[in-house]
Structure formats: C-alpha cells, structure tokens
Amino acid sequence: MSDSEEHHFESKADAGASKTYPQQAGTIRKNGFIVIKGRPCKVVEVSTSKTGKHGHAKCHFVAIDIFNGKKLEDIVPSSHNCDVPHVNRTEYQLIDISEDGFVSLLTSDGNTKDDLRLPTDETLLGQIKEGFDGGKDLVVTVQSAMGEEQICALKDVGPK
Q1: N or C, which end of the chain has less CB nearby within 10 Å?
Q2: Which PANTHER family match (predicted)?
Q3: What kind of fold does domain 17-85 have according to CATH?
Q4: How confident is the model at residue 51, as a pLDDT?
C-alpha cells in the first residue's frame, strides 16, 4: 500500500456503547436517571428494602420516561449495576415551524437542524406556536438520550 491511496470509512452502524453507563443501584437517587425496560427515565421515587439473613438489600425504582411520560418501575439488588443514560440538554434558536410539524432550529455553529418534530405536550406546543405566531424570538431546549431527541422547554428572549 502506498501513501497516495486514500481510504474512506463510513460508519453506518452504531455500537451503542456511549448511550449508557453502569452505576451501582444503591447510589442512584431521586431526580437521577436510569434505564428501565430499555427506556431513559427520570427517577421520582427510590425505596430500599432490607431482606433476610443471607439476602441482598433491594432498590425499588419508580421513574417517568423522559420522552413519553409513562411511569415505569423496577426492582434491582442494591449491589448490582444499572444502566444510566447520558442525558444532554442543548439550547437552539427557533427559526421556523413547517406545515408538517417539524421545526427548523439554529445551532451554535450557525447551521440549521431540521429533524425535530414539535413536542407532543399540549401546553408546551401551545406556548411555542403562540410565541412564534406573535413574532417573538424563542429559544427551545432539546433533551437527548439514547439516540432520541425532543423539545422539552421554551425560553422567550424578546421580540425579533
């Protein structure tokens, strides 16, 4: 092989290794995050039960899916590891709302992001449409975890 040959590798597959990290169940607290049934969730309640002579303490987690709002529960021995999702929140300026429900967002490096739908939450959806129709300058917060993204908050930064 000579130096003049160029090789281009395009990664189409995702190993998925960076979507979560392990954390001991006994160290996960309320308002933390956890993966239950393959879904990223925010913990709303944790109770730890002590078991018999040779048993392990168990953690009972009650959590809400961060994307669809469904309540999920799981019981894990406190010494075992649980998957915890990497949850990121990014702010983007809202540029446009298309007819089919997609939004056009301005990223910090000046590019546009056009692959997000309007949120399903009725109050947030109403606030976004009302502010946009009123000609206000809006900044939306996009929460992402495990390959999913969704608008989760809105900030009004004044008129355009």
Answers
A1: N
A2: TRANSLATION INITIATION FACTOR 5A FAMILY MEMBER
A3: SH3 type barrels. (2.30.30)
A4: 76
> Which residue do the tokens 């019981």 mark?
75
63-96 pLDDT, tens digit each: 999 999 999 999 999 899 999 999 999 999 999 9
Residue intervals in the chain for CATH 2.40.50.140: 88-159
Q: Where are the beta strands (DSSP E) in 2-147?
A: 20-24, 33-36, 39-49, 58-65, 71-77, 81-85, 88-97, 102-106, 112-117, 136-145
111 pLDDT more than 60: yes
- SS3 assignment, position 25: helix
What's the pTM?
Answer: 0.78
